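Annex B.
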Amino acid sequence: MIRRELTITNRLGLHARATAKLVQLLSGFPCQATLEARGREVNAKSIMGVMLLAAGPGAEVVLRVDGKDEQAAADAVTALFERRFDEDS
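HPr family phosphocarrier protein: predicted C-alpha cells.
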C-alpha cells in the first residue's frame, strides 16, 4: 500500500471537472484507491464520493492506493495534482 499526502493547489479545488479528471485517470488502474480529507475517507474512483469531500484550494488530502499497479497509479495522481489538474497556468 502506498500513502501520499497531497495539497490541492488549483484555483477551484476538487470541483466537478477536476474530480472527473481524477476519477477517469484512476479508472485506468485496477488497484484500489481512496482519498481522505477532513476525517472522511472515500473511494477515489467514485465521482460522487470525491465530490462529497468538498476539498477546496489549500486542502490537504491523503491518497491511498493498494494493488498490483499502485506505484504507477500513485505517481499519475501525484502528477495530476502537481499540474493543478491542467487548469491553472
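Strands lie at 2-7, 32-37, 40-43, 60-66. The radius of gyration is 12 Å. Further annotation is deferred to the next reporting cycle.
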